[in-house]
Design a protein that fits this description.
The protein is α/β, with parallel strands linked by helices. It is built from ten helices and twelve strands. The protein has a single domain (about 1-180, about 220-245, about 280-300), classed as 3-Layer(aba) Sandwich (Rossmann fold), CATH 3.40.50.720. Helix 2 (about 55-60) packs parallel to helix 3 (about 80-105) and helix 3 (about 80-105) runs parallel beside helix 4.
């Protein structure tokens, strides 16, 4: 399979490229910057293109001969520039769908986000955390209105393109992702990575609040596997799939596992909710459909994911190499 990975040098994209290469496929990445930090050891093993997903004519030329597009490119927008956020996260995917349609691509896998569910209150939030199904209402997340609204718009476009044309578009929504690169590239939402990357170099971490909150964490390599499985699935019946691990933990429990599996450093978490300061979008996703229709099952639990993460950092020579 020849697969175009937009945002292919990013946190998830780099893991997808590795997964594709390991499975004997042919990835091509498209990114706005030539930063190969996360793929330094395999940078010569695949084709890289620089470009902007908003350039639909260039996209149309690029998808010639492509079997599948994994559309990962996205932006964490600022309220100071909502236009850019909507342009990249809403119009960008629509341009990808259109270029894929024109170029005869068989399938697009679009990575959305659990932010489309808004804040997870009631029975889906603290303290019960009932699993959230794909049918859960989609609303704007108050702490990230541009991001959540643009992802919802792109999801609607994905459904529409799949209905109108001979183009399969699968949409994936993920639990909270942890893994290499999140600390440097995702700002405040990289708290999980900051804990691990400080531990690797022997530094403790103190988080002032959030110790009572639970959240589902999924390792980036499992996210990558889910994307590749979605690219290859023979007869998916649904248009959207939740992807998670089933690991619902507090930040304190996560810190304890880091101390046990990464390095024996002190990690403390104060009481309360919302440790990331992003609104109450914590919970667990019902990933039954992904298991039944795509055959996806996570390969990493938290312990094995943290060990793999730490081994990756140490292989770079320092836990600070990604900052």
């Amino acid at each position: 399979m020849r697969c175009l990975v937009t945002g292919g040098l990013g946190v998830v994209g780099a893991a997808v490229v590795r997964e594709l290469l390991d499975a004997g496929h042919d990835p091509i990445t498209l990114d706005t910057r030539e930063d190969t930090t996360l793929v330094a050891d395999i940078a010569d093993a695949f084709e890289r293109r620089s470009g902007d997903i908003r350039d639909i004519e260039a996209l149309e030329r690029l998808v010639v001969g492509i079997d599948t597009v994994a559309h990962l490119a996205a932006l964490l927008p600022s309220d100071a520039d909502p236009y850019l956020g909507y342009a990249v996260n809403a119009l960008g995917p629509i341009g990808v769908f259109e270029a894929a349609r024109r170029g005869g691509v068989q399938r697009v896998v679009f990575t959305s986000a659990k932010a489309v569910y808004g804040e997870l209150g009631g029975r889906h939030g603290y303290p019960t955390y009932d699993p959230v199904p794909e049918s859960h209402p989609r609303v704007t997340l108050p702490s990230a209105p541009v991001y959540s609204a643009s992802k919802r718009l792109a999801e609607e476009a994905a459904r529409h393109y799949a209905e109108l044309f001979d183009l399969q578009v699968l949409t994936l929504r993920f639990a909270t992702i942890y893994g290499p690169g999140k600390q440097s590239r995702h700002g405040g939402t990289g708290l999980l990575s900051r804990i691990v990357e400080r531990a690797v170099v022997g530094e403790p971490t103190a988080i002032p609040r959030g110790g009572d909150e639970r959240d589902e964490l999924v390792y980036v390599r499992d996210v990558a596997r889910a994307i590749v499985v979605s690219c290859l699935a023979e007869a998916p019946r649904s248009w959207v799939y939740n992807i998670g691990s089933g690991d619902l933990v507090t930040l304190g429990e996560y810190g304890t596992l880091v101390s046990e599996e990464v390095a024996p450093v002190r990690i403390t978490v104060g009481p309360g909710l919302d440790p990331f300061g992003i609104g109450l979008m914590y919970g667990i996703l019902d990933a039954t459909c992904a298991a039944e229709e795509l055959g996806f099952q996570p390969a990493y639990d938290l312990r094995s994911g943290l060990r793999d993460y730490a081994d990756y950092l140490r292989g770079l020579g320092t836990g600070r190499a990604l900052r």
